[in-house]
Amino acid sequence: MTIISGKKREKIDRLAELAAREEERGVSLWQDAFRRLRRNPAAIVGAVILTIFVLVAVVGPFFVPYGPTDTMGIREGVVRVGQGLIPGHSAEHWLGYDHQGRDVFSRMVVGARQTLLVGVVSTLIGLSIGALIGGLAGAAAGLGGRWGRWVDATLMRFIDMLLAMPSLLLAVSIAALLGPSLTTVMIAVGMVSVPVFARLLRGSMIVQSHSDYVLAATSLGVRKSKIALTHVLPNSLAPVIVQATLTLATAIIEAAALSYLGLGNPDSAVPEWGVMLADAQPWLGIRPALAIYPAVAIIITALGFTLLGEAMREALDPKLRK
């Protein structure tokens, strides 16, 4: 486990170092990256997938044909679970009914909003806490002298402890301690990404703290705290932003895994793709499509975030550009 965590730590630090290098050409880093993204087919496909996902999540719930909690199938006698009858798709119900007689299509659309909420909030939790720790450690290591190196070593040993644990095991442990709920899933998944964001920002800030503009600002008598906040930090955010895009994909998958294990929202009436996947498990023999629909949606959404994130990493990292 120590060898694995060491390799993971070296990979994160290497990504931070490469992404923090200054561009030698006249065009800015972000302008050049955006130009490369527009020519990257993977980035275009990922952006299209994410655009559709966000539109469905934000606008779709206002236009669903049926309420996500309406058990019309049971009420009308169409769904008879005891007899093994759960009808599939039809002209009125595009994805059929679930085991409680609810319209699956309406629940999939409304569930997209919950899935997006879990992914975004958990990523923001990991980003904010990780950036706070990584920014403090990076500023202390790069500009703090002997005292700063002590602060950096202390914070990084805590981060190394989190990195040494498998991410899913850490998320399950936190969720089990807090109890099953949607908030618990957000906190658990967010805490998993804290060490990655912390090490990325720390490594990037250390590289930037040795740049010529930092030396010039120091020579002019600018306070080190101001140099860290107004110069080093803004120029160190590129790898963190890329990692946030990739973390959204893993956050959705890990949230679905926690929900599948029964650690998510205990109220199955609130549609969420991970909860829908867990609820479909007893009915796989009768209607496996109840599990296939949310599983495919999770896979496609995670693929969109991954494609866009990897394309951004290639555009920003000089070692990976094509």
Automatic annotation (TrEMBL):
One GO location term (cellular component): plasma membrane
SUPFAM superfamilies membership: MetI-like
Protein location: Cell membrane
Keywords: Cell membrane, Membrane, Transmembrane, Transmembrane helix, Transport
Membrane topology field: Multi-pass membrane protein
GO BP terms, alphabetized: transmembrane transport
Residues spanning the membrane: 42-64, 116-143, 155-178, 184-201, 240-263, 291-312
Similarity field: Belongs to the binding-protein-dependent transport system permease family.
UniProt protein name: ABC transporter permease
Provenance organism: Micromonospora endophytica
